[in-house]
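Provenance

Sequences were taken from public entries as deposited. Structures were produced by running a predictor on each sequence independently, with no templates supplied. The record for Holliday junction branch migration complex subunit RuvA from Bdellovibrio reynosensis is shown for reference.
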Amino acid sequence: MIGYLRGKIIEVSSDSALLDVQGVGYEVHASSNTLVDLQSLLGKDIIVWVHTHVREDALTLFGFHSKDEKNLFLSLLKVNGVGPKMALSILSGGRPNQIQEMIEAGNAKALSGLPKVGKKTAEQIILTLKGKLVSIEETVKSKSEAHTQITSALLNLGYKSQNVDQFVASLPTDMSLEEGVRKGLQTLSGSLA
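Predicted structure for Holliday junction branch migration complex subunit RuvA:
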């Protein structure tokens, strides 16, 4: 399965983006939040986190600008009655941390205000996921010390926070500071603030 794609955003439509990866164009369906983020990165080299959904008659790629959004999408797929398209609609209704807070608070009313979510679906989401989502704070804390140092070094060199975070998230957890900074310079050249 495809975990992520690195390439240039060529085009963004109302429900998908076209990503050029070494001359091959991948159509990636995404939430409206991700599409807005990708629109601002047209023509730039970026990483898009991907979930490959396979059915008998189709192979569809779902893309995410952040790993948190991808993780929440995968969690939503575990909920009875929530498929990939509905999960994308839910993610279009707010940022991952906002949706996660609604779930953890058991706020069915707020969840049912999200696109395509009725009262029963909201209750099912809470029942299935409450207390089972990895919080974004825990994800940040689990970053290795080297990742934190690599991030700091690249930010101090003038690279944009969004590009640095995306690059560092793609690195193995055992990456050394020196190797991480060297790879960062190669990958991020041309994306200075």
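The radius of gyration is 18 Å.
DSSP finds ten helices and five strands in the chain.
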